[in-house]
Amino acid sequence: MRIYITIIFLLLINFADAQKIFPIDGVEETFKPVFALTNATIFTSYNKVIKNGVLLIKDNIIIGVDSNLNIPKGAIVYDLKGDYIYPGFIDLFSDYGIDKSKINHNNNTNKDAYHWNQAIHPEFSTAKIFVSDSENAKKYLNNGFTSVLTHYQDGIFRGTGSLVNLTNKQGDENIILNQGATFYSFSKGTSKQRYPTSRMGSIALIRQTLLDSEWYSNNNRKANISFDSFNKTNLLPKIFDIKTVLNYSRLYKISDEFEIDFIAKGSGDEFVIIDEIIKTKFPLIVPINFPKTYDVTNPDDAQEISLSNLKKWETAPYNLKILNDNNIEFCITSSDLLDKKDFITNLRLAIKKGLPQDIALKSLTSTPAQLLGVENMLGSLEQNKLANFIICSSNIFEDGIIYETWSSGERHIVKEKIKKDIRGYYSLNSDEYKNYLVEISGSKTKPKVKINQIDSSSFITKIDKNKIIISHTNKFRSSSKIYEKNIIGKYQDENGDFHNFVMSFDSNFVTKKENFIQNLDTIVPSIWSPNKSYGLVEKPSEEKIIFRNATIWTNSNLGVIKNSDVAIYKGKILAVGKSLSVGDIFKSDTLNIKIIDASNKHIASGIIDEHSHIAISAGVNESSQAVTAEVSIADVINPFDHNIYRQLAGGVTSSQLLHGSANPIGGQSALIKLRWGATAEEMKIKDSDGFIKFALGENVKQSNWKGTRFPQTRMGVEQVFYDAFYRAKNYQKNWDNYNKLSSRKKRATSPPREDLELNILSEILNNKRFITCHSYVESEINMLMHVADSMGFKVNTFTHILEGYKVADKLYEHGAGGSTFSDWWAYKFEVNDAIPYNASLLNNAKVITAINSDDAEMGRRLNQEAAKAVKYGGSSEEDAWKMVTLNPAKLLHLDNRMGSIETGKDADIVVWSDNPLSIYAKAEKTFIDGRCYFDIDSKNEIENRDKLERNRIIRKLSKSKDKNKIKVKRKEKEKHYHCDTLDHE
Amino acid sequence: MGQNNSLFIGGIAHLGNGKKISNSVISIVDGKFDIVADLSKIRIDPEAFDTIYKIYGKHVYPSFIVPNTTLGITEIGQVKATHDFDETGKVNPNIRSIIAYNPQSKIVETVITNGVLLAQVTPNGGLISGQSSVMYLNGWNWEDAVCREDDGIHLHWPSSYYNTGWWAEQGETKKNKKYKKTIKEIHQIFEKSLAYSKGNNIMDLKMESMKGLYNGAKTLYVHANYASDISDAIDVCQLYKIKNVVLVGAEDALKVSDKIKENNISIILNRIHRLPKNEDENIYAPFLQAKQLEELGILYCLSYEGDMEAMGARNLPFTAGTTVAYGLDYESAVQSISLNAAKILGVDNKIGSIEKNKEATFFISEGDALDIRSNNVTQIFIKGKSISTDNHQKRLFEKYRKDK
Prior knowledge:
The complex is a heterodimer. Chain A is 25% helix and 25% strand. Chain A is of the alpha/beta class. Chain A starts with a helix and ends in a 14-residue tail after the last strand. By secondary structure, chain B is of the alpha/beta class.
């Protein structure tokens, strides 16, 4: 698949022959000695070890590695007996050596030759602003990294990154690959332009840019520097900064659509949706910035830590194990760590939690080398490869101390090697003291000394090579040298007099060596979907049920029928009627049929919310432009939103997730079923028609906040629509003309440029996409119907439509439906004539009328809101109930499978404790596709489980010895989208 | 417009004090309730009354009361010119809502028609937002609409925790580092005003307005939600010997119920129709709170604080209905928006329940007024006087219904 690997070889510079280009001030040092590192345990690669091996290095190259090597004459020999050598680690996600003062992004004045959007700069080359930076290099070298792939982490198309070594040398000498990979993200970064304001806007911008660059290259255009650069670097590996775990499926869709292989820089909590990660097949670059330990000493504070954060804290260290268990290829990065010093600690924690050591090594060496196609240079220790390696006191993944890292043959000392372990018992002799017992304990590098007869406390020593400073109260302040069997030196007493002393070795100190393997803790905590309160342990199963003796709100011509049964089977409604016979309806498949006595209960089809903004991530409005038909809420569904569960408990089964109302032509909708615990894709209603949000009035003309973009009046709004649809018609004509060409002529003609925005508008003109239009006053409602009639399309639904009652006859004539609030008004000037009688008046005028929420809170009480059509305006109860079930199903073109209790329809049903319009009714069971997603009887059980889980983790936290605990951090008190909500990243 | 003596017979009377008379007789004499009895147990001389209303099968309720609301001092959410509830400055105890109250507000007339006949009109914003007054939702001007003038001062206790991050990519809640500083400020305010209240000083408007806290003339309404905040607030009120303290919001009240009870503090609850305060909280928590406080014997009433609180105030009866769905006894739910509210606002001597000698401020509904479907207010009486049930929205309804 990865064709770029072969290409990389062509890009290779002849690194073995690096020559100084800069003039030398003085005399050139030409002598390159051979270094021979002997007697070490050498991991030549992640799966190959040589005991007592020799590693030979000349200049920046390995000239030999084996167990039996002749050491060339004149070689400088280091005896590394007992030490371990590993290939140097490679970090693929870094911003090392970026000189920001050198950044000169184009200004995208639309008079230059770059992409119009400032966040799209594929022409940007990190190599151009790279400088060696020995201070920051140390932070990597100290963790065992000897080369990094660095890039300037800004924008959506970020340009190229460079693979560099970490020596002190000139920048160009450090660069291994000038262009190692191209980088991408969903964040517009420092761009000062408005577009995009939302995640879905970023996604649309990426898709349009990919289409444009293809079109650009097919047309042999060269003038635009951005597209030209993108096409030139197209074969490099593409690394995408995922940032949050839900972005995986978003990227996967792009990858699928454009057949691009991405490498994903992960978020560290991949475990929460591991099945989706597997599906993407992306190789990953995974951070190990595990959440800090929370301070739970104050119970009030502890209560403010969300269970999802607690669970994340507990499970994050298992992330790499889980990835490995699922055969996902990954590299490990030190990026995202607030303190790079935590890297080795966290890496070892991951190993304790079950990441195999060889995989850890692989993911730090050969995998990154392979992903960049540089395995001939890096990733293992073999002849002719770069001298990039680590010297360690013992196993680096257990308790080894990194002594040195060598990058490109340049030696960096991390920690002076303490040759000798001086710990043990000694006898101290001087003219003052005779055979005093000395105990040297502590660690090998930081021994502590106690001389009981002088003072009972332990004192820390300073040890440097073979010198040791022992200060033991004022009676004994010494500097001395370490010899094979004793420590000899002078000490000063409290009078300031010096004495010679000898400490002679008696016996070894018996230390309890921590057995790393015994401390493994590889049992992964349970992971729920989603991994938070009320999350599911397993997907609800498809049930076979007969509900007996219920009052059934059929929404069919049967009306409300009492003492009746309904059966569900294979996700569908199997039968409705009185005294259903099991044998008749289930035929032979009668195993495991549940019979539920629903006497005194009401059963109705699930509520459908025609206008909802729950379960959306990173922006409900792409508010930057007047027309943003190219963006889609379906790209940014957030299946983790707990409002899904809350609304299930309110009897809601399906929702239209709408774009906001900041612009006349907003984005496309997502139609979902509230399948709690499922993925974003699984929540979508398959084979449904496409919808799009339009909007009118104060929001689009920016009346209630500062805004200057066109339009600022209702007059301008009309013109936006005419302009958009004339453009769409022209666009369609161009395509029609092109498509009519013979295939021979097609080859000779360049196709029109594909435009995502106009594609969608053309769908509207072709009756393939349907409008839900936010609207309030009669003038604008009338206007849009005129625009639609004259341009040849229909407005499917006017939503809010609070003055709809004034133009009900016109709506009916046009064929538009109305989806309204039950009683909201007075929140802005344009809703002054909004009346709660609206729904009934519309319904009376035969307009298909729905009542919607547009609000996460109201969304869980839509049954009550429907009752307001009975109170105000006197609709019948059945009519009112249809306003939140069958009618929204009609408006969403789903009434052939939802919205009523009829044989063959989806088993999306709710068992209510009472008449569902009653204020006293509670949804007791909510089924979607015959699966029970909410059951009032198991609610307590789940809550108890959550409480136990919380307490269990808090107990664990309070036992934790971590000294740097952090104070309360709860996910913020929720913010909820309404269509007026504007967002800015 | 002289007062009538009138008689209501056959109604299902919810007295507001927890009692119900299924077949009632109620008389009004000089604007006050006189007879309140079971029709089958009393003999009435119909001749003694000017008007007799036969209301068999209809429901009678005392006025519902919405506390802690900007109703009447705001009109249109997005039009600043109509906002008279948030004065600039942090400490405004001298600010009085009463003089900005507009009984002719288009919103007010849509609230009264659902049975909410009184409101505690309350300024909002800052640390001390000002003084509320209890107002009838009817009148020619604020002066004749007043039920209790300047009933109390509203202190918005700082929150121990605050929210960070931006809303889509959810941030974290952190501890409020300014909390201690703000508490010090509060101490200073009370220290000073307590001292002022004891002597004769040159007029200081702010200090003067707070005098009533120390002699019981005014209630201190403390708006606080987190358990630790509630607890701190109670301590401060005790320290300065503030006579009447009412908690407003009090989402965490159950966690500090002992202390609330010990100090005899009552509560104006946050809106029942709200979301749980975070993803971990019981999804029913807001619905269950009334029942739980009832069981603990803490005096509470319901409010409709929050988004669109003015226009939404007409839904107050339905929030009480929801508490019934979640376990509260029906008559207690009625009480939670009538007598309980009257007690907490210090007006129960004249309104809040249908009892002899109380003001005849009540309404008649065709059906159960706590259930949306059947809440149909056909007659409203304030101090015995019949009030129009018409409103702006009904007029539009009638107009467009007829024209079609």
